Every structure is written in structure tokens, then in C-alpha cells.
Amino acid sequence: MRIAIIGAGAIGGVFAWYLAPHCDLVIVDQWADHVAALNRDGLHCERDGVTKARRVRAVSDPALAFPAQLALVLVKAHQTTWAAEACAAALAPDGLAYTLQNGLGNHEVLAAELGATRVGQGVTTLGGTLLGPGRVRHAGMGATTLSLTPNSAQANALADLLNQAGLPTSITGDLDTLIWGKLIVNVGINAITALLRVRNGVLAENSAARSLLGAVVTEAVGVAAAQGITLPYTDTVAHVLQVARATAANQSSMLQDRLRGAPTEIATINGAIVALGAKLGIPTPYNATLVALITALETSQGEGG
């Protein structure tokens, strides 16, 4: 089976490293230095202080990945339009794209290009950090869950492959619960850590940060309830704080983006809560403030400094 990894950043790189020995893998990425390093030196993955390299094939032109049976989309939200076009070029006519991205709205962008019957969705809690061209760190093992739709046979084949590669994966018919469960964790952790420039654990230790996290998460829970979403945990704030403690040494993906001076996914995380809240008539002032602050950072001079 040929698998195309669309975007081999932090999480995409971790998936690629685990999958490389188990399938015909092709990495598709826009970063020329990254592609060159992957082809020249292999993909280096650090875990628990030990770094191992695996040979991989990487391309900048997605047409060179054709014909892929499955594509895993792991780019940042602002790159999803490019990823949709890349999937169209890389996939075989009956091929399926799975988005494992953060936030809301990515599935719709992919479906607009490929058609809804060719796009699946998943949630992963793997932790990763992009260290440089050709180099990633696996920051922590986590479960991956795939939607049964739109093609159960392909979903099962992908789940079997991921499990074989050592990445715990399951399938569900109720992915919305998990998508919102992860979204609300990201809502509570990502923007605050990016603004404070701290690792996740500080949010559980600092009383002011903990209070802000609680306010932001409570707003998001209200929006989820109005959408008819059942969350996979009862005490939501306690759950998000537990995640912050469990990943205390990790830098959130949004903090990593800010430290690199790269665009963040604020629009599809806290911004999604604000947009849905406005549509439903639910005030979300804390989330709106975080969106405004991150946006101001991204558009100000000295970005990334």
C-alpha cells in the first residue's frame, strides 16, 4: 500500500518515521530544505534522548507521489488548501485522504476539492516537535482514532497498518465526540502557552493561568453543548488541567509556531469557538481576546522574536 504523508512537520514526521518500514511511504512537503535533508540523510526521530534514522522518500511535487491509496494530512490549518490540491495530485482515483489536523474546518476544505466520499477524519494525541530539516522529536505516545466513514474497508486497512507500525489506533462511528474533546483541550492550552511562552505544565501550576484556562474552556463547553455535542469527559476543566500536567514538559504546537515565527492555528481552534458562539448567540469574550492577542502577535513587527 502506498501512503502519502502530506506535511512532515512535528506530527507528520513522527507518523512517517513509524510507518516507513511498513509500507510504500512518500512524504510530500513544501519545505525544500526539509525534503532535501530527508532524501539525503533520512528521517531522524528522537525519543527519550535516543535518535534513530530511517530512509524515506520525500518530494515537493505531489504528483510524484501518485498513485497513493491513502493520504494522511498533517499540515497546519493555513496550509489545508495546498494540502487538498496535493491530495488531488497524489491520490489514485479511488484513494482516500484522512485529516488528522487540529481544530475545525479542515475536513470541509479537503471535501470541497476531493469530494466528501474521499475524505475521512481522525484524531491523534501523539506529541511531536520539529527540530529542523529532516529531524523530529517524538514527545509522547498517544492514541489515534479514525472515522469509520466514508469507507470502512480503507479505514480498517489504515488502522491495521498504524497498529502494525506501533501507533495505537482504533475506529469509531462517533468521531464528533473525540474531535470536540481534543478541540477543547487545545482551546485551553495552546493560545495561553503561546502568549506566555511557557510549557504546558505551567498552566496547572500558576493560579492566574489556571483561572484563565478555566474561563476559556467553560466558554467552549457552552458552545459544544449548544451544538449538541457530548464530550468524552464530565469535568472538562479538570480534564484539560490533567492533560497539561501529563504533558508538562511539552511545548504546545501553537507555542512552537510562535517560536518559529510561523502562522498559528488560532482561527480553527479558539477562533472556531468564537465563530460558532456568534452564530449561536453565545458570548465568548475570553476566547475572542485570545484570538485578538495571537493575531496581533502574528501581524506585528518582530514576529517570532
TrEMBL record:
It catalyses: (R)-pantoate + NADP(+) = 2-dehydropantoate + NADPH + H(+). Gene3D superfamilies: N-(1-d-carboxylethyl)-l-norvaline Dehydrogenase, domain 2, NAD(P)-binding Rossmann-like Domain. Its EC number is 1.1.1.169. Residues 3-148 form the Ketopantoate reductase N-terminal domain. Pfam families: ApbA, ApbA_C. Pathway: Cofactor biosynthesis; (R)-pantothenate biosynthesis; (R)-pantoate from 3-methyl-2-oxobutanoate: step 2/2. One of its GO terms (molecular function) is NADP binding. One of its GO terms (cellular component) is cytoplasm. The keyword Oxidoreductase applies. Keywords: NADP, Oxidoreductase, Pantothenate biosynthesis. It is an enzyme of class 1 (oxidoreductase). Residues 175-298 form the Ketopantoate reductase C-terminal domain. The keyword NADP applies. GO terms for biological process: pantothenate biosynthetic process. Belongs to the ketopantoate reductase family. NCBIfam families: apbA_panE. Catalyzes the NADPH-dependent reduction of ketopantoate into pantoic acid. This is 2-dehydropantoate 2-reductase. It comes from Candidatus Chloroploca asiatica.
